[in-house]
Specification:
By secondary structure, this protein is mainly α. The chain starts with a helix and ends with a helix. Helices cover 59% and strands 0% of the residues. The protein has one domain: ACP-like (Non-ribosomal Peptide Synthetase Peptidyl Carrier Protein, Chain A, Orthogonal Bundle), CATH 1.10.1200. α1 runs antiparallel to α2.
Length: 80
Amino acid sequence: MEAETLEREVCAWLEKKLGVSGVGRDEELVSSGLVDSGNLVRLATHIERLADIEIPDRDIDADHFDTVAMIVAYVQERSA
């Protein structure tokens, strides 16, 4: 999946499921409290379906999913 497409999809999910719009690619999601642990798991599940990858539970944390840019980089790495 192309980085721009994934970025748009993640932002669309955040808006649709959490009512959060206008998220910048470097805005903190988890560490700011914008996305809680339950929604982080839901987001990771959505990304797994979109990108056709498997995300280990140990990777579903702020170290990998704190910003949209980090999510895109993580997915690209897992897809390689």
